[in-house]
């Protein structure tokens, strides 16, 4: 009966994860459920089911974070020692030594896996040249920003930023200097935006900004300050100014990711048409 309950519970959690895509919650609940189930089976069935304990303890490191797996295994191990009579057959010291070695080994490998996953996430979302977030990250964050705006009605703006005459910089000074200019731009922008704002490299010399919690007047002051900082600090090797054009699209109800990007891009195009080194706002 306990075995069947465990199987049905696991099937139910898998179905929940597939339907809701909340794998983190499902995995954590599954880890607790399986751990409790195996301890119960070992107590009820005795030594005949005891060998299931070891693979289950190892499986915890696949279901939850390494530290959480260690805590779950520790509690399960204590429960087995306190409630089971199998240690009349199996030496307690052997069980403890085996569980400690298994958990330590699994922890090391699982922790390394977590580090590798974080590295992959960074490589997947960070522009290698400039250190800004990349276009893939922008697409994901725009979806989150739109959801948050629709839910809480928070004012937000999408800013497209493009360096003026950047091709001239590349042609005159070479691509190495061009790369340094892009890196410097990211440093300047990062130093002049708030912690919650995010900068993305959209492609080439074009960048995007997501700016949170600013109304129309604040958007204009924010862009003006940023534009001035770029003009004053971004220089070519012979100290010539490198300027930028801005297209700013404020969020409005009903905005989609495509319409928001198109609106900001259209505003940027108008800024270029008006002579560059200026900002155009979609609500003008």
Derived structural class: alpha+beta
Provide the succession of SSEs.
HHHHHHEHHEEHEHE
What is the number of independent domains? 2
What proportion strand?
5-15%
CATH topology of the largest domain: Alpha-Beta Plaits
CATH class of the largest domain: Alpha Beta
Helix run count: 10
Q: Supply the CATH architecture of the largest domain.
A: 2-Layer Sandwich
| CATH superfamily label of the largest domain | Reverse transcriptase/Diguanylate cyclase domain
Strand neighbour order, sheet with most strands:
2-3-1-4-5
Shape: elongated
Could you estimate the helical fraction of the residues in percent?
Answer: 55-70%
Task: Compile the SSE list and pairings.
Layout: H1 2-20, H2 23-45, H3 53-63, H4 66-83, H5 92-125, H6 135-152, E1 156-163, H7 166-173, H8 175-191, E2 198-203, E3 206-212, H9 216-233, E4 244-250, H10 257-273, E5 279-281
Parallel strand pairs: 4-5
Antiparallel strand pairs: 1-3, 1-4, 2-3
In short:
The chain is α+β, with helices and mostly antiparallel strands. Helices cover 64% and strands 11% of the residues.
């Amino acid at each position: 009966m306990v075995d069947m309950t465990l199987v049905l519970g696991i099937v139910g959690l898998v179905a929940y994860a597939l339907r809701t895509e909340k794998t983190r919650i499902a995995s954590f609940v599954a880890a607790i459920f399986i751990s409790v189930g195996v301890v119960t089976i070992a107590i009820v069935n005795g030594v005949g089911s005891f060998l299931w304990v070891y693979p289950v303890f190892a499986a915890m490191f696949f279901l939850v974070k390494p530290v959480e797996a260690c805590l779950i295994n520790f509690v399960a191990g204590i429960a087995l020692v306190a409630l089971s009579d199998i240690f009349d057959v199996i030496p307690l010291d052997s069980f403890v030594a085996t569980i400690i070695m298994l958990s330590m080994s699994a922890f090391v490998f699982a922790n390394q896996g977590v580090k590798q996953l974080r590295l992959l996430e960074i490589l997947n979302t960070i522009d290698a040249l400039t250190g800004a977030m990349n276009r893939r990250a922008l697409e994901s964050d725009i979806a989150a920003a739109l959801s948050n705006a629709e839910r809480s009605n928070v004012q937000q703006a999408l800013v497209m930023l493009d360096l003026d005459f950047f091709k001239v910089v590349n042609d005159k000074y070479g691509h190495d200097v061009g790369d340094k200019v892009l890196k410097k731009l990211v440093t300047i922008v990062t130093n002049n935006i708030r912690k919650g704002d995010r900068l993305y490299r959209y492609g080439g010399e074009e960048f995007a900004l997501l700016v949170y919690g600013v109304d129309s007047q604040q958007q204009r002051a924010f862009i003006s300050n940023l534009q001035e900082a770029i003009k004053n600090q971004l220089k070519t090797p012979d100290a010539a100014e490198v300027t930028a054009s801005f297209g700013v699209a404020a969020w409005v109800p009903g905005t989609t990711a495509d319409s928001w990007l198109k609106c900001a891009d259209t505003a940027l195009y108008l800024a270029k048409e008006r002579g560059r080194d200026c900002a155009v706002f979609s609500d003008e």
